[in-house]
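User: For documentation purposes, I need each entry recorded in a consistent format: the amino acid sequence on its own, followed directly by the corresponding structure tokens. There are two entries in this batch. Please keep commentary to a minimum and don't merge the entries.

Assistant: Recorded as requested. Entry 1:
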Amino acid sequence: MKINRPLSPHLTIYKPQLTSTFSIFHRISGALLAAKVLFSLPFWKIGDLSLTFYHSYSFFFFVFHWFIILLVNLTFLAFCYHMSNGVRHLWWDRGNPE
């Protein structure tokens, strides 16, 4: 006999808090930074092995320079947010010494 009721009403009952939002974005920024690093590692190795690295990618940089600059800036923004939020978590975890 199956009862038709929601399994977990937490999304419909509770309103989002600032700390839970920070925690969710901390996880998202960490996952994006990890994905970017894992995606970038093969390209770093190819660049080290290639004798014509500068000449082969100079056209790519010339055409997509705005995208590369945007990607670097967004990565830096995600890194700053992730590090500052991590420091905040460490500060909270240290407790309240009295």
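Entry 2:
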Amino acid sequence: MEERDGDAGYGMGMEIVQKQENDASIVASEEMELNITGILEKIENFTQMISELLESGKTMFKELSNEFEERLITIHKEQIDKWQEEIKELRLHDASNEEASAILHNARFLLQNPTIDT
């Protein structure tokens, strides 16, 4: 019977050890859950920060894109206006040259044919 009492004591000791291990695992689990919760909060905060950075970046690039587009349109317009002015000046110059050429042609004709009037 003593062995049984010893065995029974051993069994009670195992139950206490298992209960302590369960309590330790519950404490560890709660601690682990707190750690996991902390990490999940970090993930959420990081995700939110990235989302805000993306939105900020999109807005910034959209503004830059609009400014870039406006500037390119302005550069294009200025260059076209410059070339149109050059065309206008060339046409005026050409008209002046044509007028001078016609006067010279008439003068040459008169010099080559002086007897027509007499």
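Summary note for entry 2:
Residues 23 and 29 are 9 Å apart (CA to CA).
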